[in-house]
Write a structure and sequence with these properties.
Length: about 500
């Protein structure tokens, strides 16, 4: 048996034809939907980039205990478990955060790995005398400047990171398709911002825009003109079309080598992206609306042979590690909270009533598939937050000496396998964004009925439903062995028995 995961970053399911969007050229995502099971209620768990990837390895929530960071010594890593049990694991990726502090030990869990340089702010090439082109928005720091330097070396399609990354993945398949017992993770940074593509992918989306370059929205409310917004969305569409083109090459190879008979295929993402919905760009600066957390997921299981069908069961990123372990006949560690999806793929069997999701230090969220409850920390308690870690790194870079001075030894949690931890004041995910931003906390607590209000435009007031969602949230937090202060921050002490 073999398995391939094609993973994208910031792939908004609302821009894909299998999820109802037609104003885009993505024939291979349509083709994919015909060959796989399409999940309609897949939710992310921990955001953003590296917390989501820790969940992909460990099959349990990250965000209640820690912000961005590396795998910990006590973590159950799915690819490492496969590797230790005779299943060859390989990853090829252009996700540059793997090469930084806070993400630098993930690739070591695989038998082998390849890394393609040059995405976004990856310090890929050095140009001291470089004039940054005029552009609207984007990062106004080292990352922004470095991105444009990197583009200077990627003028041709074959030079771009996604092209090289897929080339690596296709080579692995070509050289190993006759072998048995392997897992390939073909992980791509695109369509993460900035939305940089060769001109041929822009052609279907020409909109007559002649203004300043705008293919890199920041993380803020929309302040641009309607013409600028429409143009930036078209730049995203072009990048999705490029992703679609390379996805098609994987499908072609599976056809060529008749791999559908014995190879699991998973196509997924870590989270979505706000493209002007709710008047916001990006992520992390607004509540986690469904555009960010209700994510696309496609799975072909050669044992079930279910294709061209949809599943409504509530599933999450934490389910992917157990799914792969079960597929390869491996025991699922007791500390994994996710569930294997084999029976859900076959019959739409439910595996949970509720899904928890969020980011360290801000709202904690829960859904049952119909209602979404977004619980805001109390204003006077929002900063009562700690990182529980062994590895003293976050993002960007190491935990500072001032942060470490607050450290106390903590006995550990149920899932840390007897390891004590450092309890360090702070968190909030990406520290350079000055978390938690005041504007995020000003949203307050929100409750949405997705059946009546799928776009989450009108929050409702319903004490009975809110009470039910709170009780479910506390239950899941307890199952995750959430730290005591999380209940206090959220004003939920009365529900803790």
């Amino acid at each position: 048996m073999k398995a391939i995961m094609v993973m994208f970053d910031s792939l908004n399911r609302g821009m894909l034809p299998p999820y109802g969007y037609q104003d885009i050229q993505a024939p291979n995502f349509e083709r994919l939907a015909r060959r796989t099971v399409v999940f309609d209620n897949c939710y992310a768990g921990s955001m953003p980039c590296m917390p989501a990837r820790r969940e992909l390895h460990t099959g349990r929530y990250n965000f209640l205990h820690r912000s961005w960071g590396p795998l910990e010594p006590y973590d159950d890593s799915m690819p490492r478990i496969l590797k230790e049990n005779g299943i060859y694991t390989h990853i090829t990726t252009d996700h540059w955060h793997y090469w930084e502090e806070g993400g630098c030990n993930y690739l070591n869990q695989y038998n082998s790995y390849e890394f393609v340089r040059g995405q976004e702010g990856d310090p890929f090439k050095g140009l001291i005398q470089f004039e940054e082109p005029a552009h609207l928005d984007g990062r106004k720091d080292f990352c922004g400047r470095q991105e444009f330097i990197n583009r200077h070396y990627m003028q041709e399609e074959e030079q771009q990171s996604i092209t090289q990354n897929f080339s690596n993945g296709l080579q692995f398949i070509r050289e190993n398709y006759e072998a048995d017992n392997w897992y390939l993770q073909l992980e791509n940074y695109d369509p993460h911002e900035p939305f940089f593509t060769p001109e041929k992918y822009k052609e279907p989306y020409r909109d007559g825009y002649e203004g300043i370059m705008f293919d890199w929205p920041g993380y803020h409310e929309v302040v641009e003109t309607p013409e600028q917004v429409a143009h930036c969305i078209n730049e995203y569409k072009a990048l999705v079309t490029m992703c679609d083109t390379y996805l098609g090459k994987v499908l072609d190879m599976m056809d060529e080598y008749d791999m559908w008979k014995d190879t699991m295929l998973i196509v997924n993402t870590d989270h979505g992206f706000m493209l002007g919905q709710h008047n916001w760009w990006g992520k992390m600066m607004m509540p986690y609306f469904n555009e960010l957390v209700n994510i696309p997921l496609f799975i072909w299981d050669p044992r079930a042979k279910e294709a061209g069908v949809r599943r409504q069961a509530l599933v999450q990123t934490i389910d992917l590690a157990p799914t792969l372990l079960e597929f390869f006949g491996q025991d699922i560690p007791k500390d994994m909270q996710g569930k294997p999806l084999d029976k859900t793929i076959k019959t739409d069997m439910p595996i949970r009533e509720y899904a928890l999701f969020g980011q360290h230090g801000v709202h904690v969220n829960i859904t049952d598939g119909r209602y979404v409850y977004i619980r805001c920390p109390l204003p006077e308690r929002e900063q009562e937050l700690y990182n529980y870690i062994i590895e003293p790194t976050s993002y960007p870079g190491a935990i500072t000496t001032e942060e470490i001075k607050t450290a106390k030894l903590h006995k550990g949690f149920s899932f840390t396998k007897g390891c004590p931890l450092l309890k360090i004041k702070g968190g909030y995910g990406i520290r350079t964004l000055n978390f938690p931003p005041k504007v995020l906390m000003e949203f307050g607590t929100l409750l949405y009925d997705l059946q009546e209000d799928p776009d989450q435009e009108n929050p409702i007031q319903d004490a009975q439903i809110e009470e039910r969602m709170i009780c479910a949230m506390v239950k899941l937090m307890k199952e995750n062995d959430a730290p005591e202060e999380q209940y206090k921050r959220l004003g939920l002490e009365a529900y803790v028995v």
